[in-house]
Amino acid sequence: MDVTDDAGIRTLTLNRPSVKNAMTPAVALGLAEAFETAEPDEVDSIVLTGAGDAFCSGGDINAMADRAWPVAERAKRIEESFGRLAEAMLEADVPIVGKINGDAVGAGLALVALCDFAYAVEDARFNAGFARVGLIPDTGGTFLLPALVGLREAKRLAMMADFVEAPEAATLGLINEAVPADELDASVDHCLAVLATVETETLGRVRQAMHENLGRPYDDALTAEARLQAEAYATEAHKEGVRRFLG
């Protein structure tokens, strides 16, 4: 993961293109730290994007093949990595703009949901993905997806795990807009320029108020999510899903 700061904009780039920017706990912790250290007197906005032709393919599936931890320990690990990342994004003092350069799957879709604004190339696809490997949405997905698209659509995304094309994602509210690839930079830059006309402190307070009023304290939601996810890791459905994925 690369971090660059320029003229008040912090750009975070998921940089594992050989695996479609799949995330490991270490990557999640690196991202969390980058969000946590974004001070509003130095950083006005954060841009989150991916290297190569994908935004993020979710959790590293190869790492999922080895799961020997007890449920309680696994829940702790999930909450301290992917849960910490979700909390860091929710608690950031500056707005977050997703620059979705390609497919967003699993935890990658959750990252899109965690962004305040998201602009995607027209051929990007979105997939909750978790159910295909016997898991539930994490990284805040269990409470953010219903908040964004409504409970029924969130269930469709999570249970059917089909790919959604960028134009439909915009209609659902997953992203703000689907644009031609050569217009992605301009769309994100325009959003950043508009945000720069408002005090960063004010923007931080707006997002804090909205996030704290999602309907349930997100620390409780993340704890419950991590426990359920840890239980899912121990199921035959997850093991079989990983076996199928790895061939």
Oligomer: single chain
Question: How confident overall, as mean pLDDT?
Answer: 92
> If you consult CATH, what is the topology?
2-enoyl-CoA Hydratase, Chain A, domain 1
- DSSP strand content: 15-25%
Distance between the termini: 28 Å
CATH H-level homologous superfamily name: 2-enoyl-CoA Hydratase, Chain A, domain 1
- What form results from the Cα inertia axes? globular
The succession of helices and strands, N to C, reads: EEHEEHHEEHEEHHEHEHHHH
Please describe what this structure looks like:
With 247 residues, this protein is an alpha/beta fold. It has a single domain (2-181), classed as 2-enoyl-CoA Hydratase, Chain A, domain 1. The protein is 50% helix and 17% strand. The protein contains 11 helices and 10 strands. The chain has helices at residues 25-36, 61-64, 71-91, 107-114, 141-149, 151-160, 166-172, 184-195, 200-212, 218-233, 236-246; strands at 2-6, 9-14, 45-50, 54-56, 96-100, 103-105, 117-121, 125-127, 164-165, 177-179. The protein has a 6-stranded mixed β-sheet, with helices on both faces. It has a 4-stranded mixed β-sheet with strand order 4-6-8-9. The longest helix has 21 residues, at 71-91. The relative contact order is 0.15. The model has no long low-confidence stretch (mean pLDDT 92).
What order do the helices and strands come in, and which of them pair?
Layout: E1 2-6, E2 9-14, H1 25-36, E3 45-50, E4 54-56, H2 61-64, H3 71-91, E5 96-100, E6 103-105, H4 107-114, E7 117-121, E8 125-127, H5 141-149, H6 151-160, E9 164-165, H7 166-172, E10 177-179, H8 184-195, H9 200-212, H10 218-233, H11 236-246
Parallel strand pairs: 2-3, 3-5, 4-6, 5-7, 6-8, 7-10
Antiparallel strand pairs: 1-2, 8-9
Helix pairs in contact: 1-3, 3-10, 4-5, 5-6
